[in-house]
Give the backbone structure.
Amino acid sequence: MNKHIVSLPGDGVGPEVVQEGIKLLHAVAETFGHRFEFTEYPVGGMAIDMTGSPLPEETLAACRDADAVLLGAIGGPKWSDPTAAVRPEQGLLGLRQGLELYANLRPVRLSPALLAASPLRPDRIEGTDLMVVRELTGGIYFGAKQEPTAAGVAFDTMRYTESEIVRIARIAFDLARTRRGMVTSIDKANVLASGRLWRQVVTDVAKTYTDVGLDHLLVDAAAMHLLRRASSFDVMLTPNMFGDILSDEASMLTGSLGMLPSASLGAGKLGVYEPVHGSAPDIAGQRIANPIGTILSTALLLRHSFDLHDEAAAVESAVDRVLAEGARTADLAQPSEATVGTIEMGDRIAAAVRDTARRSPKGQEDSA
């Protein structure tokens, strides 16, 4: 298989973790007999400095022509003025809109080796394996807004249409069919009109998925139950803002925000894959950032854009193996534990991919 991947390192620790993601994809290509080509383009703050735009036309055009996009992180103190006309996050929103990516998948799976790394008791989180399906191009982030006025007034509009809710709901129900067969839909139907529409439409979609269960939770109750009984969730279907907040909360179940990957998808195979964490400017350049969120994002890339399910599983298995062997970046380590840096963690997981895959029938067949 020959595939072209656009790399968008971005800002802060973005270039450091993307480098490790590319390293893992090279290991997969070598082991399974594929060919992945990479080209790099600017986005976010780096792009503002280079071109004046957080998403240059050349970058967007390259992403449209690619088979997949691997993104690092954007933003930092240099561009943090919320009143600035041009801001790094505009590049991310523009990328989602320009590529028509309306579904964000955020898997939250607790590696058994990290039970002690979570701030929650092991009995609260053991067995956690859930998928947040977040609507990505509607809701309050994209609705009509009013910047603060001299009179001290501002607003953001949470707006949804039936068609937007139907398409994201179908993604959630289809995913549930491949998992444990349960969708929990999140809304605020007791207060918000858009929440009542959300609940009504999701209920209607569920009627065509008789093999998948459905329940509804208000977002505040969902936030509580994530801490009380995380392992009971399978697929969580959320509007844009609620999914943003709940998935960050869920990251602490795994021990660190640095562990979480994500995939932003549309109607076709093209997707943008990135860790959930931000640019972490306080540790940029120190090579201590956790690359696992990016590495697990490459597993999502392999699975969803390339249909390489065995290869994706090899990456995930390699992560579990290296963590089980005791490798910890600083964000995961207990006070008495030694740590490894970004590059060493990437090296260990790449080596484990080669070893794990070569021992599997698929790896042996493709490497012959």
Confidence is low (pLDDT under 50) at residues 364-368. The chain has two domains: 1-109+257-368, 119-254.
